[in-house]
Structure formats: structure tokens, C-alpha cells
Amino acid sequence: MSTTPSPLPGGDWTLGDLVVSRFGYGAMQLAGPWVMGPPADHEGALAVLREAVALGITHIDTSDAYGPRVTNDLIREALHPYSDSLHIATKVGATRDAQGGWPTARGPHALRHQVQENLESLGLETLDLVNLRLGNAEGPVAEPIAESFGTLVDLQNEGLIRHLGVSNATAAQVTEAMAISPIVMVQNMYNLAFRQDDALIDTLAVEGVAYVPFFPLGGFSPLQSEALAAVARRVESTPMAVALAWLLQRSPNILLIPGTSRVAHLRENVAGAGVALSSDDVAELDAIGG
Fold this sequence. Notes:
TIM Barrel, seven-stranded parallel sheet, two-stranded antiparallel sheet, 9 strands, globular
């Protein structure tokens, strides 16, 4: 286990027995349009992954469904054999169809197959962290998860998964999962304007469970966008940077996985997330979601 503190904004977080940088990298954008097919610039995609590690990122988020298989293959090509300090989180619970849709696939056989596909494509014997993707493309759905989550617990007991989490989940499903087996992560939609999980984030922080927001800058109204831009101008930064910095300052258990397919943009994201926000800035940004 690495004991060197992360040089990245936000420092580190511990997922079970894994120490990861709070500023991570989401690989979804490395696939082609609509997360289907290969990237237009194969070598550029490899360069982004290698730069992420060079910058000190130790948490990469992916899924065998991205492409499908494209991002996992790129990660393996760029980074395998993996450093002991690098930890890869993946997710299962949905596949892809020919139209680019995300049909759910959470039966025991389907989940076992997806875990095996992730192991094979990433070149691993054990997956560091697997999130169970719940709900559908429209968002979380209130439904029991005992069978699907229990299948992942079985796979964990078989030594194929190290740690578990849930994604696109309701607060009740998070509670249900935690009653079945420990989880180290919840990955849900959350940003300055979309803050339905405020209470959940605070609860998870007390429990020592990480919260990973996806869609960190999206769904804003024109007025909300202008309010964010106004703060960005004042601190001489960009709206995306301010949104990422606000998330890091929102709670110590929030981990970021912004994605990009360009090295320059990756560097901008890392630098931008470190912008210092005053209490007045934070109060003004908090009001965006109010």
C-alpha cells in the first residue's frame, strides 16, 4: 500500500484497504461517439491514461460496457502491468445493444459473465472494486437488489472482487446493500445544480464510504450557468474547474472521476480542481442548487 500522500487536489481517500487519490480519472470518454467503438485517436487515448498515472492519479474508473470493452483494452495496453498504487474500479449491471443502448443485465449468470469479461479485458485475477449499476438510463429505480448484490458478494467470497459498491442507487438501496455486505463506494449523479443526494453524502461520510459523482457539470439552467461563470470569473478560473473544486470542498468523502480524451484537458482539470474557494464563493455556489 502506498504511503506517499497524493500531490493532487483533495489528497487521498481510503477505500477499504486501498488508498486512492480523491482526484481520479473516468475512462468512459476514451471510447468512440456514444461510448461505442474505438477512439478516433488510439495513441492519444493511451497518452491520456499514461499522463493520468504520471500526474499521480491512482483511481481509474471504467467498465467493460464502455465500447464495449474498448476502454478496458486501452487501460491494459497503456498501463499493464499495473503499479501497486494504481486501483481500477469497474461496474457491472448493464450491457450494450447494437443501437448503443444500455439494457440492464443483473441476473446471476449475467453478472458473473460481466465480472469475468472485466477480469479478462483488464488482465487481472482480482478486480479492486466493482460497482453494481442499478436503475436504468433514466436514473435510479426503487426495486430490491438482494439477488444481484448477493451475486457480487458471492464473487467477492470467491476471490474475484476485492471491494464492492453501488451506482445509480437510491438511498434505500444503499442501506439494503450495506445490510448485506460492506460497501466502500456509492457512485451517483450529483453536481452543484443536482443535489438530491446531499443527505446521503453526509451519511456516507460518517460511515467512511466514498461518494463518486458523475455528470459533475450538466443539467444547469441558464441562470445557474451564469452564476457559476460569475464565480469562475472572480477566482480567475473556468466554470468546470470551479465545479470540480466545489465538489472536493463539499465533503472529504467525495472522489472525482472527470473524463477527457485529451492530455491538455486532463492537465487543466487537475490544475483547476485545486482552485481555492472562499467561504463567500462556496455560499454563492451552494445557492445554485437551492
